[in-house]
Amino acid sequence: MTRMSKSGGTISDPISAQDQMVKGSAWMTAGSILSRILGAIYIIPWGIWFGQFFLQGNALYGKGYNIYSFFLIVAIAGIPSAIAKQVAHYNAMNEYGVGFRIYKHGFVLAFLTGVICASLLYFGAPLLDGGDARVIPVLHSLAWAVLIIPTMSLTRGFFQGYQQMAPSAISQFVEQLARVAYMLITAFIIMRVLHGSWITAVSQSTFAAFIGAVAGLLTLVWYYYRNRATFNTLRANSNNQIVVPAKQLYQEILQQALPFVVLGAGITIFQLIDQYTFFDIMRGVGVTSQVILNDMFALFSVNANKLIMITVSLASALAITAVPLLSEAFTKGDLRDVSKQITNAILLFEFVMIPSALGMAAIAHPLNILFYGTAHKELAAAVLAFSSFMSIVLGLFTVTSAIMQGISQNKRAVRYFLIGTVVKLVFQWPCVHYLGIFGPLVATAFGFIVANALILGWLNQEFGVNYSEIAKKTNGILVFSIGMFIVTTILVKLFSWGLGLFMVVDSRGGSVPVVALSVAIGGFLYVYLVLKTRLADTVLGSRTSRLRTMLHIR
């Protein structure tokens, strides 16, 4: 197998598919997690500077971002993942020239969809505000990002088609860094220096998405020129036996891309259902105060969601990595390898997602105070803990849907998701009516559980996925994760009590040592157990031996 070196050359390397997946996942996971963490940490100073308007501002931010996310996914139209899959497909046939032609035609599509969706978002803002006119300037500021992000995402897909995850991961981090920097600078100036409107501050915070996109795109351009010689060599040495007409290239891109719109927007679609139904259902229950409703919406749809998406991004990173690898195996007709890679993807997802979700639930109380302060602290902690458990089914859907796309079962995956959406809609009113703020989360869990069950059942039927092996290792992951959860929960209480003798623990400053110590000890316990029992070896391969040596674990 040929891969590009850091210097831009090519290296022949008998790297296994599992090791390749783990390596690619490591890059994507690192970039995604660092970006998510950075995208969550900013909320601490941002919230302090907003003061009494924090929850209202965060609710407005979330309303705008949910709508923007949907338009962005439509603008991207799944083209980056489709490009990654198609480039990997033709690269496996040593037809690198076709891959370049696909990228060029995809660029035209990305530019056009960006212009169309940005225009719809900007001029259609008054129709999308959901009765809250303050959302309009926020949507106007976000429309600019929709112009450029499709092109940036397309370029990431091109690199991923070569199974080069570093450019995507690093550009993602640079994008987030520039975005957060702009957000914090403008929020401080508007709220603390000029003492201006919090609505204006939120609008500038959302415009930061455009600033970040420019930085991310420039990073990718730099990577391309750095490796230009290698790309030219691969293209020059292609078989050049396949001539694909432009019309067929567009058809291939669109056939692969359109299902990605629905599947890629899956979580966002569920969030939009919450945004456009939660307020009316709660008013029917008797909660009529807009301030209270905005606070509740901020707690479950924005605050908790921002933190759980750190763990869900783990699964997203794995899903992105799995698509080109599965496509390559499927193209070669190696169904046994397809089955093996499906197993590897699911196990790798569980290995990182389950302990991450349970760990976040264990530290929900101090973690929520650290990021969002003490407003509604008990309710907010309960919502975050429940959301953490629910994030497992959200993350699983990103993996299972990506697996279906990788084996060209896009329509079936969309159909299963639509069934899950119907389940969500059916349960939405009774869940919100009787469970209040927890209702949307429960309805979401039901919807994704059904969609995941349908996909996993079909995969087993078609490929004979070794679920007995998965179940055996899953039991080990669950046992160690639950053990870590129990220990971490006890540690949080002990540290809170001990530190409470010297300082105010229910404060941002007091929560820092509680979170840091609990995460460090709980995380080390899980790592120690999976390394000691060799469970990590069966999931990650031989790479764990170096870590075991470093930690002096025999």
String of helices and strands: EEHHHHHHHHHHHHHHHHHHHHHH
Decide which structural class fits the backbone: mainly alpha
Radius of gyration: 23 Å
Report the sheet with the most strands, covering strand number, pairing sense and barrel closure: 2 strands, antiparallel
Low-pLDDT stretches: 1-15
Integer average pLDDT: 85
Termini distance? 33 Å
Shape category: globular
Strand content: under 5%
Question: Roughly how much helix do the residues carry, as a percent range?
Answer: over 70%
Number of helices: 22
Give a verbal description of the structure.
The protein has a two-stranded antiparallel sheet with strand order 1-2. Helix 3 packs antiparallel against helix 12 (266-285), helix 11 packs parallel to helix 12 and helix 19 (467-499) runs antiparallel to helix 20. Strand 1 (2-4) and strand 2 (10-12) form a beta hairpin. It has helices at residues 17-41, 43-50, 54-76, 79-92, 96-123, 125-128, 135-161, 166-193, 198-226, 228-236, 246-264, 266-285, 290-331, 335-362, 364-372, 377-406, 410-435, 439-463, 467-499, 508-532, 535-540, 544-550; strands at residues 2-4, 10-12. The chain is mainly α and 554 residues long. It has a domain at 15-259. The protein has 22 helices and two strands. Helix content is 84%, strand content 1%. The two termini are 33 Å apart.
